[in-house]
Amino acid sequence: MSLILSCDPGSRVTGWAFLNTAPLSYCDSGIIVLDQDNFWDKIRVLKAEIERLVTQYQPDVFVLEKAFVSLNKQTALKLAQIRGWSYGLVHHANCEYAEYSPREIKQQITGYGAATKEQVALMCQRLLPTCTRQSNHFDETDAIAIGLCHALRARSPLYHLIGQ
Asked: Of 43, 42, 32, whose CA–CA distance to 140 is shortest?
């Protein structure tokens, strides 16, 4: 059994979720609200919260959504910095690492790479009936979907042939 920590990193809200792989089951999820004015305060809060989650649950695998390339350069730079801190925390926790594009996640969860957030949320609930989200925020749902994508791919016999 592996415990997956999946995150949907953002500069305002970061969604997180924990899933078990064997048997596939939901453990916990939530959001980290980054409403501080100073960007470095946001990083400090995110770092502390991710460290708390890693210490509490001790995940085996850390999964992120691949960066969405934004037209706004400042937003893209902030997201890159947040992802960089996340990578460092994962390295420090000695976890395996994987990442998937939004299209890959949607395809794996719904069978359609351009699915809406509502469709993804509905399929997450169907695939993980015990899922009790802590918020109604799509960043939390996205984190659940990211972890679910990894868990489903890892269970496929083809996954081991083609790698991550």
From this structure: 32
